[in-house]
Amino acid sequence: MTADEAVEAALGALDLETKARLLAGQDMWTLPAVPAIGLASLVMSDGPVGVRGVRWSADDPSVTLPSPTALAACWDPGLARRAGRLLAQEARRKGVHVLLAPTVNLHRSPLGGRHFEAYSEDPYLTGEIGAGYVRGVQDGGVAATVKHFVANDAETDRFTVDNTVPPRALRELYLAPFEAIVERARPWAVMAAYNQVNGVTMTEHRHLQNEVLREEWGFDGVVVSDWFAARSTAGALLGGLDVAMPGPHTVYGEALAAAVRAGDVDEERVDRAVRRVLRLAARVGALDGAAPAVPKPPEPLDGEALAREIAHRSFVLVRNTGDVLPLDPARTPRIALVGAAARAARVLGGGSAQVFPARTVSPLDGLTAALPEGTTLTYAPGADLSDEPEPAGPGFTLRAVCRDASGTVLADTPLPSGQIQWVGTDLPAGVTHEALHSVEVTGTFTPRESGDHGFGTRGLGPLTLTVAGRVLYDGVQEAGAEGDPFEAFAGAPAERGTAHLTAGRPVEVSLRHTVGHDRSAPLPAVVLSLLHRPPRRDPDALIAEAAEAARAADTAIVVVATTERVESEGFDRSDLRLPGRQDDLVRAVAAANPRTVVVVNAGAPVEMPWRDDVAAVLLTWFPGQEGGAALADVLLGAEEPGGRLPTTWPAALADAPVTAVTPVDGELRYDEGPFIGYRAWDRAGGPAPAYPFGHGLGYTTWEYESLAVTPTTARVRVRNTGTRPGREVVQLYVAPRADLVDRPARWLVGFGGAQAAPGASAEVEIRLAPRLFDLWDEDAGTWTTVPGPYEIRAGRSLADIRLAVTLELD
Ligand code: BGC
């Protein structure tokens, strides 16, 4: 029996109720099993940097790769494919069939809160990296879910915003990566976004989901809603949405069966959606009698090694004066390492992208392990990144005690941190939502420093916080009036009081919460955190201490970073500044030591007003669990920083041509049309960015020797003219005739990696897809070729073009 026959046989055996049930989540992450037809429960889980699984907890860890901006900065679809394979391996280990990734929305505004989770401002680069990633995940027999379809490029009011996108921009920019991935990598799932596009909410967008995605592009997979995005029964089904997540309360299931019985929806339409779900099940091996798409998973990969490789390949060296990097510890043996993030690195972005690494290597750990004997490494925190308490972590030993209404203990389970997120059926053994009355996060805290420690809570409802026998809070936390529903779900962090503690002396801590029984909630959940903030230190004294350490060293390395409150999900940024006093810190360290290297630990652009006053700047994104090891590799020259910017890096927010993320009267207008990112910078002709699209120095130098172009391929020969082996990312841009239509001045049409030893040359062959020269004709509603000549330019970045030839196209 072929897979198609197995799917038809299974479909034929289902009654209406079961079919309708199969299109609705049964809980937060799964679809129901139907044993009668040999269908297992399909399990979904977030990526994109790991596989969290069905539990939102640090005791269910996942390999944690660098974040998507980092993966894009590698400019290597083959590496993205290996990342995908590793994630499929993690998914299989955790019994996950469907990975909710990659995110291929675009960097339209640098303020986008989930910038770190998308690849680029350029649709071609996004599509290439996304296609590699999807291929890799599906090589492992796990479904990839390309999200969020479409134009979910910012977070503000994301559930309701109407993004007004002109047709050319929609086709040439926002749909383009989805189209390329559907064509090149055949994804098994796509996620419909929360937002509206041109007046229609995406889960009901018949034109984009049925006519464009399915009919025009031939997508044959499942369209799943973003979480809680499905709003109507008939509207969603007829609009092309197959699966409504999560459950158990959805617009499908019972409601869908009733709509069919009432004649609002044709059962045949239900069958089409069910057929697609069964096809997905067949592909991932969850339908008996259908051979899975991948009968035998590929050879296992080493997750730690791959996380480290992607990290060093992604780091972008944007400035390196006097060749301060790589460091030579024999000549400059005293190193001062500065920055709170050097000790507690931010390895991944927040929100649904959160996974829990089994370990993380901080810059301090990485350098300590890698520095040869005879070097000295001093550390100074320099500045606090945030004044807010964070979930209790190092120094705490905690348990969760679950009790019923009579006070009987139902479960007493160790907690890896102060954070509890039990959603749906994810509860400790022996506990049900019905029986659970209270949860207590309790244990001890042994402080590293003496002083006034802050303690706080996150969560809604009745909370009692006790530290060292003293009640710091006893009250009821109400939900905020507005904001993203997810924020409302978890509550905002609140500091409740301080306790004066002595280093090394343990104290008892307890956060007690009486759970709510809100029957109207879409699914039952227990979400609360015990928060902690170390004693505050005088900010000027911290900076002075760091500057002193820098002065006493041969080289100073400052790690600056953003925080969870800057880059996460459910909100956008309001500025691009580094939080806290970090800019002052860099200036003070640079003034104390001319050999100052700044390492930027951020998933998206930040302003770096001091960038011309320091010796080197290395962008390391959110580098994943092995980030500190990879950083040591790069700083000490064991590896080259291989990254190139996937997005223009503005000097100041005010210079960026497209920034708006806040809807006006519910509408966010994409009035700039097809001009975002470097396309917009070129057109605006204003101040140059800090660093252009494609920029990245590496540790060697390259000469571009020849460029030969046909309408379908380009060949570029480059020579490594430096003293170290290296990898060059050869970039191809096209510049059209300026006079015909209003088009960007130039755009990326191809790229390829060249590896060469010192003195050696290498040739890169780059395929040129015809579509890349076309324009979307808004009147005709089709792609159209604009006659040439076109100039094809090869170079190291948008601003460093080395060779150009003219291509006639007719
Ligand atoms: C996010 C999705 C994610 C889903 C499930 C949503 O809030 O937008 O990207 O896959 O939650 O966690």
From TrEMBL:
Recorded hits in InterPro entries, A to Z, give: Cellulose_deg_GH3 (IPR050288), Fn3-like (IPR026891), GH (IPR017853), Glyco_hydro_3_AS (IPR019800), Glyco_hydro_3_C (IPR002772), Glyco_hydro_3_C_sf (IPR036881), Glyco_hydro_3_N (IPR001764), Glyco_hydro_3_N_sf (IPR036962)
- On whether Hydrolase is a keyword of this UniProt record, the answer is yes
Highest taxon of source: Bacteria
Q: Does the keyword Nucleotidyltransferase apply?
A: no
Query: What are the GO BP annotations of this UniProt entry?
Result: carbohydrate metabolic process
UniProt keywords (A-Z) are: Carbohydrate metabolism, Glycosidase, Hydrolase
Mind telling me what this protein is named? Beta-glucosidase
